[in-house]
Amino acid sequence: MTTWITICDTCKRSGWEETGMEKTDGEALAEMVEAAAEGTSDVRTRRVSCTMGCDRACNITVQSSSKINYSLGTFEATAEDAEAIVEYAAKHAASETGQVPYREWPQGVKGHFVSRHQPLPDE
User: 26: domain range?
Assistant: First the structure.
């Protein structure tokens, strides 16, 4: 089953205005996550404008139908963070429930979890 990584492309980390970056931190992270996910069979990406987690920028969600879904934040716009996000999403996709044992989490996602969302009921 496909797992989606939803990336907030409007996220700006603290001090963004002083960096002189032309892109938001969220846009930069989105590009890296999209590149890291390229060629994966069960992971897809999409961008949204604002996930309302501004205090924890950069924010993403890992989601799949009928599975537990997760919000994560406080990422850097780095290739390492993007690769960890995609690696975790692939493990989420492979899990029947969406739960991934802690021992299998990539180091790059540890400490970034914000909330867990139970799947919606079928009825």
Answer: 3-117
